[in-house]
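Structure ticket #2291
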Amino acid sequence: MVKIGKTELGDFPLLLAPMEDVSDPPFRSVCKEQGCDLMYTEFISVEGLIRDAAKSVQKLDIYEEERPIGIQIFGAEIESMGKAAELVEEAKPELLDINFGCPVKKVVCKMAGAGILQDIPKMIRLTEKVVKSTNLPVTVKTRLGWDENSLNIEEVAERLQDIGIQALSIHGRTRKQMYKGEADWSLIGKVKNNPRIHIPIFGNGDIDTPLKAKEYKERYGVDGIMIGRASIGYPWIFRDIKQFLSQGTIPDSPSIEERVEIARKHLNKSIEWKGERIGIVEMRRHYTNYFRDLPGVKEFRSRLVSEMEGNKIHEILDEMISYYMAEPVIY
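Resolution: structure written out below.
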């Protein structure tokens, strides 16, 4: 049984990676429904949080059905990290996660996210401040190192564990790699199999099929897997992996009815969370992903992304079921 603090996550939990502009409450709700064991908010700027910026504060929103959930923060100033940790605790998540892995330039240039991999002593100080500022279990998500000349994740993992983090998620690339090339899980495996390490180690990077999940679970011995991009448009990835690990079979691809049902639920949650106008607009990016491989879907998609009334969007979704049920499609 994998545990973080008092939270039990099962024998081999599947985690939803925190993704900016993706892993909001509406998206998390459909992933939870499909079997995700632990989810994280979009990452939140500590500077925005302590200055009460609306966008940052809204990311603290948690629905009861999402639990267990972690709130993820990023920043580069020690005092700000401590203050933000106190604010996060008030939102009552199951854990607080620190992002030391985001590779995008606007974050890295401030020495936040993966930028801190250039200064490991400061990374340790930032983490220690957070651990001492909250009663929540603190976890970290990071990368193998800054570049191929600084693959120091084994040392980093030991030092982070020593100052009190309770789990570590590792993306199998350096910051320099961004999301290019193949994720290297061999170093993730070394961290997990280090006799000094006793906290849960979660692997992240390139897991996009149940077969790969099983292979990496057995080869590297990680405590669980974190899934990011493969879940976009396909929250069924959690269901598929769980069934394959437990039964050795993979479910059939989702039918048009299942795809529409997920899109409806996602839309309704989006409207519930942000109101009809913004909820509808922010949902638009997801239609392409949910229906991306359907022949002749372009016309439906163009209507879905131009409509501004929720009930009319539901009518278009009804039309899609009728159309594709009348013309059987091999998915």
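Closing remark: Residues 256-326 form a domain with the Non-ribosomal Peptide Synthetase Peptidyl Carrier Protein; Chain A fold (CATH 1.10.1200.80).
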